[in-house]
Design brief:
Blueprint: E1 2-3, H1 28-37, E2 43-47, H2 50-53, H3 58-72, E3 77-81, H4 97-105, E4 114-117, H5 120-129, E5 132-135, H6 143-148, H7 156-170, E6 179-185, H8 190-195, H9 197-205, E7 207-214, H10 219-222, E8 230-233, H11 248-261, E9 265-268, H12 277-285, E10 290-294, E11 305-307, H13 315-325, E12 358-361, H14 373-385, E13 390-392, H15 399-406, E14 411-412, H16 419-427, E15 431-434, H17 438-445, E16 450-453, H18 460-463, E17 470-473, H19 494-497, H20 501-510
Helix pairs in contact: 1-7, 7-13, 9-13, 14-15, 14-20
Length: about 550
């Protein structure tokens, strides 16, 4: 658990070198003690450019921090960036260096950390390191920073409550006995299946055999998931975005097929706007005796475990929480991130060259989530000019788009890859530039950094790349925010079209991805020699 100092733990007194001016924010001590009681280790990450400006001394800073600990209790690590804005360090937020160093000092990784802060630089640093971010706004926090934040709460006690609630959702007691054959269900597109992967792995850890029911659009992703022994492919007309009419004969055939599975129980994974109840009825008719699902609607006798999840929980955690409620907690040795089966990835296509290129995936099956073609073309041109090798990918129906975009200086692989081949390409990339679509979740499963051109039609905190270094670009406060629109409701796609390609270049540098160099996946930014124990965050001299 990482916390910014000024504005988050204590009131923000600019460039404070006086311990007598330290004032904790309301409820801070009690909130931090709740975290300590839960067994969480705490670290402070803070920008203190007042040192570089000569506005206070290192001894005065030490005394101020000692006063913070006197009032709020001990912290397990302090990481401080002493540099000014123009010093070019890799520790000053929004750079992720402080988060990396603090996580290491706490004996963990950034992907297992949460950073609570009060400004956008805190959230950017958290995302770029692969940590979760929670914003606690103050009157000084800009509205654009609030819109971009993955999670926003009113105060520090509220942030602690949110953290402990999310931990409680995914934890469960180990199953007393090993379950038999379990049918897990996740219909919809490839990305939906991928983000359900941690929940399916949790079920697989406590089952003798796992059968996954998915739709045609998710089949390729299902074949990549660890823990799945068998896949049943069947379209569900109450789930598909463009469904065929309900065919009674087809429903009878599906019921018969479900009965053939011989499942001892079923776990129905859905998105927050989908109902599990139609399928639960068919499963009852197929003879499945125990069924678990998330349902706000009254299920009658259709569900044995009716689970509920608050809005806004990241989709992988939503799936994990249902698995835990059904009696399948994720084993202690399994990290809750996305994963793929290594043996399911084919060799990458020939001609890619050394690892370290940047993949740009401009298309999407949903219009609002795609990168505007003109922007994608400009991104390729700018990155190529800066020395990056750019690989442009897309499906068979996107070949005209990828040819246009790659014409600005990239390698066109449009229509030449299935999902497995695409995963093999992304696995060797330095970073992926993509909208809110399936390849973003492939990158998360492969620990490849993501530059997310994320249209705000759905919440970023719920659907953004999970536990992977990420920089989000775009207008998060655009008129389409939270509309769930599949076609852009505003002419010109302004939430993304206004992104300057130079911002993508800046994001690559923030993520530590150099031009034309085989960096591989999951690059970690090194701490600068002049500040070996220091990196960056917000507050008091920011």
């Amino acid at each position: 658990m990482l916390l910014d100092r000024d504005g988050t733990l204590v009131e923000d007194v600019p460039y404070n070198g006086d311990p007598e001016k330290v004032r904790p924010v309301p409820g801070a001590r009690e909130a931090l003690d709740r975290l300590r009681a839960a067994g969480l280790r705490l670290g402070v990450v803070t920008n203190q450019s007042g040192l570089a400006r000569g506005l206070f001394t290192a001894e005065e800073l030490r005394r101020v921090n000692a006063r913070v600990e006197e009032l709020l209790g001990p912290f397990d690590t302090w990481q401080i960036c002493p540099h000014g804005e123009r010093d070019g360090c890799v520790c000053r937020k929004p750079a992720p260096g402080l988060v990396h160093v603090a996580a290491h000092a706490l004996g963990t990784t950034p992907s297992r950390c949460v950073l609570v802060g009060d400004i956008g630089a805190d959230m950017t640093a958290a995302g770029a390191a692969g940590a979760a971010g929670i914003l606690v706004p103050t009157p000084a926090t800009r509205s654009a920073e609030v819109s971009l934040a993955p999670t926003v709460v009113n105060d520090l006690p509220g942030a602690v409550t949110e953290i402990l609630r999310r931990i409680g959702l995914v934890c469960g007691a180990p199953p007393a006995v090993r379950h038999g054959r379990v049918l897990v269900v996740r219909s919809d597109a490839a990305g939906d299946v991928l983000v359900t992967g941690p929940g399916i792995r949790a079920v697989a850890a406590g089952a003798q055999r796992v059968v996954l029911l998915c739709g045609p659009r998710g089949r390729a992703a299902a074949d990549l998931l660890p823990g799945v022994d068998e896949v049943v492919e069947w379209p569900l007309p109450w789930i598909d975005g463009t469904p065929a009419p309900v065919d009674p004969h087809d429903m009878r055939r599906l019921t018969d097929r479900l009965a053939e599975v011989g499942a001892d129980e079923a776990v129905i994974f859905t998105s927050f706007h989908q109902s599990p109840l139609p399928l639960a009825l068919l499963l009852r008719m197929a003879g499945v005796h125990r069924i678990s699902a998330i349902s706000d609607d009254y299920p009658g006798s259709l569900l044995d475990v009716r689970h509920r999840v608050p809005a806004g929980v990241p989709e992988p955690e939503r799936a994990l929480s249902l698995a835990a409620a059904a009696g399948f907690p994720l084993p202690a040795g399994d990290e809750p991130g996305l994963r793929l089966r290594a043996d399911a990835l084919p060799p990458p296509p020939a001609g890619l060259g050394e690892p370290g290129y940047v993949v740009l995936h401009p298309g999407s099956s949903v219009e609002t989530r795609a990168c505007p073609p003109e922007l994608a073309t400009r991104i390729v041109r700018v990155l190529s000019a800066a020395g990056y090798r750019v690989v442009v990918t897309g499906g068979p129906d996107e070949q005209e788009l990828t040819a246009r975009v790659a014409g600005a200086g990239g390698l066109d692989l449009g229509g030449r890859t299935g999902l497995g081949e695409l995963a093999a390409i992304i696995a060797r990339a330095g970073a992926l530039v993509v909208g809110n679509t399936g390849p973003a979740h492939l990158a998360a499963a492969l620990a490849v950094p993501v530059i997310s051109l994320f249209a705000p039609t759905v919440p970023f905190g719920q659907w953004g790349p999970y536990r992977v270094p990420t920089v989000r670009l775009g207008d998060a406060g655009a008129a389409c925010r939270d509309s769930r629109a599949t076609r852009c409701p505003v002419p010109g796609h302004p939430c993304l079209s206004a992104v300057e390609p130079g911002r993508v270049l800046e994001a690559l540098r923030l993520l530590g991805v150099p031009a034309d160099s085989p960096v591989g996946a999951g690059t970690v930014v090194a701490v600068p020699p002049r500040a070996p124990a220091v990196t960056s965050t917000g507050g008091g001299g920011r």
